[in-house]
Design brief:
The protein is an alpha/beta fold. It has ten helices and ten strands. The protein has two domains: 143 residues, Nucleotidyltransferase, domain 5 (2-Layer Sandwich), CATH 3.30.420.40; 185 residues, Nucleotidyltransferase, domain 5, CATH 3.30.420.40. The protein is 39% helix and 17% strand. The N terminus is likely disordered.
Length: 364
């Protein structure tokens, strides 16, 4: 199999496959930025009754959907196998059963089409999503932030391919905390958009929820305390321990305005924690006397959150930096970000072979 791009860099075309969690996705991207097609088959309806993703259900759904999704992406791009220079696949981190489906599909296509295969880190791909379908490229060095259902991480970025993790969550990811908050409030799944919508009608000063700071100077995150504070605000302080614990109040008795206020107050604290660490990371880099941070890059499903986008813009304006957020289409898991970063890796000669493996744990 050829391990170098056949075309000029701007014409390199990659098929991307993404199955790290519960979205079966395929996309074709040219030159790292130009999305020719992006197809995502959501599984929300399969997992809604469980209030979260069930790994076995997710992997079985991927098996059923992967071929038609890839076929649809190729047809939408109006391209044949001869127009594809490589196959990129998100191979870490994620649910192992889900990842195996995508990696197996990518290997099969790479072998059959005699094309290079490129393993892409799902978290880093979220940072590349800001470059899709736009002429506005971030300047480096940059500070990157990934906020999603499974990850909340900060990165120092010298380029799109040179990233160093400088902070991560020590418990829940922010998106997971949103899902749990929605479950506590009886709002259903997925929780992020539902809490965000209700928060816009509420008073964020109604409840004083904690913003975790951890040790002085820490760039890590924690959302478990916020989740517990919301639970106690809704149901009262529990008596007893473990399975025998009982609460003072029934969450089903909350009024609509009370739920709105709880959502607004929760969102204020959750986003406040992220902005605190983002601001701190930039400040630490500046104090260290290194290269001036030029951009803030934010990716992941929670980058669609209205309050987070507004506060990130306010922070960037205050620090006189450029802010780069994905188009709403590319906030959630998608294969365009996998294919786009795959283009850059192909151009840099960073390719894999058929021994590529799936890994539930990432480098970051």
């Amino acid at each position: 199999m050829s391990c170098t791009a056949k075309r000029n860099p701007g014409d390199v075309t990659v098929l991307g496959i993404e199955t790290s969690c519960d979205e079966t996705a395929a996309a074709v991207v040219r030159g790292g930025r130009h999305v020719l097609s992006s197809v995502v088959a959501s599984q929300d309806e399969l997992h809604e009754e469980y209030g979260g993703v069930v790994p076995e259900i997710a992997s079985r759904a991927h098996l059923e959907r992967i071929y038609p999704v890839v076929q649809h992406a190729m047809e939408q791009a109006q391209i044949g196998r001869d127009g594809i220079d490589a196959i990129a696949v998100g191979h870490r981190p994620g649910l192992i059963g889900s990842l195996l489906v995508g990696v197996a599909a990518a290997k099969a296509l790479a072998w059959a089409w005699e094309r290079p295969i490129i393993g892409v880190d799902h978290i880093v791909a979220h940072l590349h999503a800001v470059s899709l379908d736009t002429a506005r490229e971030p300047e480096f060095p940059a500070i990157g932030l990934v906020v999603s259902g499974g990850h909340t991480s900060l990165f120092a970025m010298r380029s799109a391919l040179e990233v160093e993790c400088i902070g991560r969550t020590i418990d829940d990811a922010i998106g997971e905390a949103y899902d749990k908050a929605a479950a506590i409030l009886g709002l259903g799944y997925p929780g992020g958009p539902r809490v965000d919508s209700r928060a816009q009608r509420g008073d964020d000063r109604a409840h004083d929820f904690p913003v975790a700071r951890l040790e002085p100077g820490s760039l890590d995150f924690s959302f478990s305390g916020l989740k517990t504070a919301l639970l106690y605000a809704v149901r009262g302080t529990p008596t007893g321990r473990g399975a025998g614990a009982t609460f003072e109040r029934d969450a089903t008795r909350l009024t609509g305005p009370q739920i709105d206020d709880l959502c607004a107050s929760f969102q204020k604290a959750a986003v406040g924690a992220v902005m605190l660490k983002l601001d701190r990371a930039i400040g630490q880099r500046r104090e260290a006397g290194g290269e001036m941070i030029r951009s803030i890059i934010i990716g992941g499903g929670v980058s669609a959150n209205t309050r987070l986008r507004a506060e990130a813009q306010a922070l960037a304006d205050r620090l006189h930096m450029s802010l780069h957020l994905p188009a709403m289409t590319y906030c959630l898991d998608n294969a365009a970000m996998i294919a786009g970063l795959g283009c850059l890796r192909l151009e840099a000669g960073l390719v894999d072979d058929l021994s590529l493996t799936a890994s539930p744990a990432g480098l970051y």
